[in-house]
Amino acid sequence: MSRRGFLGVAAAGMAGVMLAPGVTLIEVAQAATAPDGTKPGASPKVRWGMLIDTTKCASGCTDCITACNTENGLDPRATRTSAQWVRKVEIKEIKTGRQASVPVMCQHCAKPPCVDVCPTGASFKRADGIVLVDRHTCIGCRYCMMACPYKARSFVHEPTTGQQPDVPRGKGCVESCTMCVHRIDRAADPSQANTACAEACTKAGHGAIVFGDLNDPQSEISRRVRELRTAALRADLALDPGVRYQGL
Is the pTM here over 0.85, yes or no? Predict the structure, then answer.
């Protein structure tokens, strides 16, 4: 057994925590996980990603944040420690003075540091590149929050209310952007699925967010990444994120 697998089972055995009726940590900790941290159930031929055009993202606009909160049952007004899966960051280039408003969320890295440090395997990467947190296996140690260079994860301090059926949440767990994985998994044609933030941005007429398969040369996101100059946040870390930015 790998060290991560041993720690996962050991932590579950010691804690014996029941996070939902009839579901204990030990049941999920024993789920199969590949050596690279991926779990079965998604196609390795696909690499889901998002392209954000900062030249079209207006400062002060929060359409993507509102859509994310509504889709995932988040209430930012609840308390000062409420979870936030997308946040807007205002940046300024010192030499030119150019300013940009940048949505920042989980970057869904090909080499996610959050997965590397998780002692129970709760943080994992699907075969299609989406990085998630298993709520039942998460023990709230918050190592992943410290490891994430994008500050993209939140810890749930208070009991959750108004949960959406497709997006289970729980007090004492870490969570972050799921790239609306529930939409992808339930879609008859996953290539036609879209994230809530990208959908809202398009409906509002901004068109700043494009979602799609980075591995499909015919997809809009793949074509734009290929033809336009795009950048990754903290490219120096060589994490190969699934979220790219245009205009930075």
Answer: no
